[in-house]
Each structure stands twice: as C-alpha cells, then as structure tokens.
From TrEMBL:
<dbReference type="Pfam" id="PF00067">
    <property type="entry name" value="p450"/>
</dbReference>
<keyword id="KW-0349">Heme</keyword>
<keyword id="KW-0479">Metal-binding</keyword>
<feature type="binding site" description="axial binding residue">
    <location>
        <position position="525"/>
    </location>
    <ligand>
        <name>heme</name>
    </ligand>
</feature>
<comment type="similarity">
    <text>Belongs to the cytochrome P450 family.</text>
</comment>
<keyword id="KW-0560">Oxidoreductase</keyword>
<protein>
    <recommendedName>
        <fullName>Cytochrome P450 97B2, chloroplastic</fullName>
    </recommendedName>
</protein>
<dbReference type="GO" id="GO:0004497">
    <property type="term" value="F:monooxygenase activity"/>
</dbReference>
<dbReference type="InterPro" id="IPR050196">
    <property type="entry name" value="Cytochrome_P450_Monoox"/>
</dbReference>
<dbReference type="InterPro" id="IPR036396">
    <property type="entry name" value="Cyt_P450_sf"/>
</dbReference>
<keyword id="KW-0503">Monooxygenase</keyword>
<dbReference type="GO" id="GO:0046872">
    <property type="term" value="F:metal ion binding"/>
</dbReference>
<keyword id="KW-0408">Iron</keyword>
<dbReference type="InterPro" id="IPR002401">
    <property type="entry name" value="Cyt_P450_E_grp-I"/>
</dbReference>
<dbReference type="InterPro" id="IPR001128">
    <property type="entry name" value="Cyt_P450"/>
</dbReference>
<dbReference type="InterPro" id="IPR017972">
    <property type="entry name" value="Cyt_P450_CS"/>
</dbReference>
<feature type="region of interest" description="Disordered">
    <location>
        <begin position="29"/>
        <end position="60"/>
    </location>
</feature>
Amino acid sequence: MATVPLLQHSLSVAVFNDGFKRSDFGPMGVSRSRRSSRSYAAGPRGPCIRCQSTSTDEPKTKRNLLDNASNLLTNLLSGGSLGSMPIAEGAVTDLFGKPLFFSLYDWFLEHGAVYKLAFGPKAFVVVSDPIVARHILRENAFSYDKGVLADILEPIMGKGLIPADLDTWKQRRRVIAPGFHSLYLEAMTEVFTKCSEKTIQKLEKLSEGTNEHGKGKIELDLEAEFSNLALDIIGLGVFNYDFGSVTKESPVIKAVYGTLFEAEHRSTFYIPYWKVPLASWIVPRQRKFQKDLKVINDCLDGLIKNAKETRQETDVEKLQQRDYLSLKDASLLRFLVDMRGVDVDDRQLRDDLMTMLIAGHETTAAVLTWAVFLLAQNPSKMRKAQVEIDSVLGQKRPTFESLKKLEYIRLIVVETLRLYPQPPLLIRRALKSDRLPGGYRGDKNGYAIPAGTDIFISVYNLHRSPYFWDRPSDFEPERFLTQRKSEGVEGWAGFDPSRSPGALYPNEIVSDFAFLPFGGGPRKCVGDQFALMESTVALAMLLQKFDVELKGSADSVELVTGATIHTKNGLWCNIRKRSDQPQI
Ligand code: HEM
C-alpha cells in the first residue's frame, strides 16, 4: 500500500468548529490536552475536524516566518486576490502536519465554500459548494482539464480517459462508456460473486484452522484481502485476465502493486520528480517503476493481440442478442475489440486498459475497507445489514436481481463513499477565463478566474458540509432515505429521487451535486455502477458468513491519503464465522 512519509499521520482528536452543536458530532468531545492536534486516526466515527482558527478554546495557530513569506510570495505570483473571493492563507507548515484535505476542511469552515488558497509556491481555488462544483464539472466542463493530475498520470496511463486531452477523450469516451451496458453489468455480477466466493473460502479455511484453540476466530488485515479481491475482479472484468491474487502471487501482480504504489506516490507530490532528466535510468525507484510498467504492458499487449486475433465482428443489435451470461469472455476488452477495436491502435487500447485497472482497483478496495471499519463501530447497523442479507439471500449468492433488494447494503456502500470519498479531491485547471457562480453563500456576482487557475473541488468538504448534511460526520446509511430539503439552505432542493428515476444508488443528480462520489458531468466515472455493484456483492457475501470486529480501537487505525484514503498499517480485524445464520 502506497504511503508518503509526509502525509502519514495518526488522527486522534475530535475537533469542533464553534459554529456546530457539539451534540451533532456525537460523543467526540475529547479535549485536545489529551490528544495531539497533529495526529490523525480514522475513528471512532470517521475524522471530525475543527476549524483551528475559529475555535475559542484554542489559540489561533501561529504561522511562522516561512509561512508568511511563502504566502506573500504566492499572492504576488498568483496575481493577488480574485475579486471578492476570500483568501485562506494556508500555512506551508500545514502541508507537513496532516493530509491536505483535512486542512481544506478547516479553511472551508473558516472562509466559506469558495476560497483562494495561497499555499507554498502555488495558489488554488478550493470549491466546497454544489452549485460551483456543478458549474465546473457539468455546465462549463469543457473549459477545464485535469491540470496537475494529468501531468502526474500521463506517464502511467498515457492517453487513457483520466489524463486524456480533450480530443482523445471525446473519441475514447464514446467508445468505452457503452461497454458498461446492462448486459455487461449483469455478466459482471457473476464475476463479482465468483471472486468474492474465493475470498470467503479463504477466510473459512483459515477460521477452520483455528477452531480448536481460537474458536473459529481469525485475525486478518481485511484491507489487504479487499485489495486482492478488487484486483482479481478488475482483471477479469476489464481484460479477462485472472490475476488470482486472492490465492497466489505472480510477477504481474507484483508489478501491478509496484505501479499502483508509484501512481499513488506521484499523486501526493507537487514536484514532478519523475520528469527529472535520466531519472528513470538513474534513480533505483524509477528504474523499478519502468520495469514494473513493462511487465504490465507486455501482459496487456498479449491480451490485446489475442483479443484482436479472435475478433468477431458484431454490432449493437447482435450484442443485444448475445447471451452475455454464457460468454466465456464478457470482458470490456472483448467488447471494445469486437465492437470497434479495428481502427484503434494497440497503444491506445493499452492506455485505456491501464487506466481502468488503476482507476477501478484501489478505489473499490478502499470503499470496502471503510465500510467494514464503519460497521465494526456500529454493531447494530452490522446486525441490521445481516438481517437484510439473511432475508434476501439466505445461503445463496447475490444475483443481479437480488442486488435490487439489498437496499440497506447499497446504502452502506454510498454512506461509506460519503464519509470517505475516493479521491477526496477532484482536480481541474481553467483552460480559459471563467466566472464561477458565488454558490449558496458566496458573493452573488460570483468570482472571475483567469485561465490557468488550478482548482480543487473538495468532495470531502461537500460530503461533510454542515450546510447540507445533518450530523455530517455520523455514519447513518438511513439518511439517504430520509434527508430531503436541508433546513436553512436557501435554494438547495435536497434529495429528490425523481431526478434520477430507477437509479439503484443515490447520485449527484438526486442530490444536486451535494453528493458526488463519482464526480459529475461528462467526465464522471465510467465504472460507477460496476464499482457500486461490486462493493455491494462483496460486502453482502462477507457479512453473510462472518461477524467482523476491529482488532484494536478505532483510534488506532491510522489514516493516510494519496489518490485514495486508506489505512497506514492495514485494517486488522477479528473475524468469526457467524453462528446465527439461518440454514435455508
Ligand atoms: C468505488 C470505486 C470508484 C470510485 C470512488 C471512482 C471515482 C471516480 C471519480 C470521482 C472520477 C472522476 C474524476 C474526475 O472528475 O476528475 C472517476 C473517473 C473515472 N473512473 Fe472511476 N471510480 C471508481 C471505480 C471505477 C472503476 C471500477 C472503473 C473501471 C472499471 C473506473 C474508471 C474510471 C475512468 C475511466 C474514469 C475517467 C472518466 C473520464 O474522464 O471520462 N472507476 N472515477
């Protein structure tokens, strides 16, 4: 699992902004004298943040000379203020103190939902408002590109969808998005269950081994298990390659993890060290990265060659008639090659596959990890989930149809994504000058921004905004059934399921961009339904057979971030075979 020393912290404090009722945050009023403000643990109800500068019981954090000088310089370099947009002077030293998205939350509470952050050598506009997010992601989407994110990912994903320039993106999105059609998703449900079954069998075997002395209880890092599971699923789903990582290790798996590690590392660094001339030959880590990349590329090239050699021409109508469930290879690669693969060069296809491998692996593993983490602290919700699973599935595996009935499990998955969005920030750069709307609380004239402005849309802030969510830091899957118009927010229409009829999972449309776990607009995640269904199946199958509790306290689970939010040392759990499962 990728980690960066500067961004590894143990959060062990629940902190409050004075604007909030303390009861809103549950029993977390632990005084700072007992806990350090510089460490970050994930529990017990997920990280709660206090705005340092508005707190009354704590003196305002003093900025040192370095911070002041850097802010002065940043403001000069970045052209000073952006109209009436509030400016948060981020302390450079904060970069070294905690994950950036925590600091962005502090400043959101202090400065509002659109502010300019003068930070070190750069300035960013930080957005935590649904109207402004909607403007950037949907209404004026093509005035923005992925900016610094594309710089980071391009050496790994080439012209794959995430870093792709606009022209390439337009062509490839049109080809790839239809690949996630409903027949494919139905066929994938089989893949999800088969792969999850292997994980369950592994856990069962391990727990049998402990029956005599340990009474069927095993201690396991579930994050690592979810990571293997998600890798197997993405391999089969995207290019019909069985990594088999739940049960074995191979050079390809090692190379995939090496590459993911590097992708993660790069996404936490602001300096493109990998662009230093000759770095890929001289620096041992970079040499290893190039070697890993070659192993995966060779593997992908082989799969593409095979798919092209066995290509069957088809069209949409024929596709409708094909019995996807009986296909040996229902993968996305098969679809791409059969449907339209002739004209696409192998390099582009390889970039597409690599993008989906990386985009779809760690994200899903993180959702499962945090779902278990949250459930383990809420045994009554775990029980409620198991009651639903028992009544819908009994002893059977989930199917495409039964997913529709597993409502509570689906809500657990989305509530987990609300509290732990993957990634916590979306990155954009303005290609031309634009006027951002003021949002719900900002200047009603909005804010003019020049071309080249770098933007962070803080999904984390949106998802934990006290203006849109009741008790924003609580784990409450039920909230999606009840939360409608939020009090006190003029103009926000709250959740309205009729905006997205038939959707199995709440989304950015239903919530009018207050909830956007998969982004929104044209560059929204193509794999959203794949990932949601995969997580629902895996979670349901785990809870069907096992009771799970954390091995230590929630506070001891340290949190780190890169592209995703994950644990520092794994999610160590005690897992015990359920004894109360109905035998139907
Ligand atoms: C829980 C799991 C997942 C989460 C939370 C997630 C989240 C996201 C988000 C937030 C974006 C938008 C990024 C932006 O606007 O800058 C995105 C884009 C993307 N995701 Fe996912 N994703 C997940 C799983 C997957 C899976 C399983 C796949 C493929 C099989 C996938 C493929 C992609 C691709 C290709 C894009 C780029 C879309 C484009 O620019 O057109 N993701 N994802």
